[in-house]
Design brief:
single chain, mainly alpha, 4 helices, about 130 residues
Length: about 130
């Protein structure tokens, strides 16, 4: 397992979660365990695309990409716990619907992504054209 492989795994999961968020379900939806809205789903899809790009197109720099995404998720996690970041109830920056389960998931994801970026060996093999 290296940062290229974990980038692809995270990428697929994030894209799938973003897509699933558009379908009413009890886990990831506006009224689900993890509250999402259009903006939140799009963030998941964009994050997944960034991970996939790191793993598929920029594999030789996937460790740096994973670290950057991990830092961004750490910032999101911290912002999720700061009450002044909300312009209305459970709307981070007035755009992204989150709830307590999302806050803790984002914190856990930040730890997991940063651990992957710093602990897994990088993939230094160039991507075949």
């Amino acid at each position: 397992m290296n940062t290229r492989t974990i980038s692809i795994i995270f990428g697929v999961i994030f894209v799938l979660v973003g897509i699933i968020g558009f379908v009413p379900n009890p886990l990831v939806h506006h009224g689900g365990v993890f509250a999402v809205n259009l903006a939140h789903n799009l963030v998941h899809i964009i994050t997944g695309a960034a991970f996939l790009a790191a793993g598929l197109m920029f594999a030789d720099k996937s460790d740096a990409w994973v670290k950057v995404i991990g830092v961004l998720y750490a910032v999101v996690a911290i912002a999720g716990f700061l009450p002044f970041m909300y312009f209305s109830q459970d709307m981070l920056l007035g755009l992204i619907h989150i709830n307590p389960a999302d806050r803790w998931l984002h914190a856990g994801l930040a730890v997991a992504i940063l651990a992957a970026g710093f602990l897994l060996p990088p993939s230094r093999q160039p991507v075949a054209a």
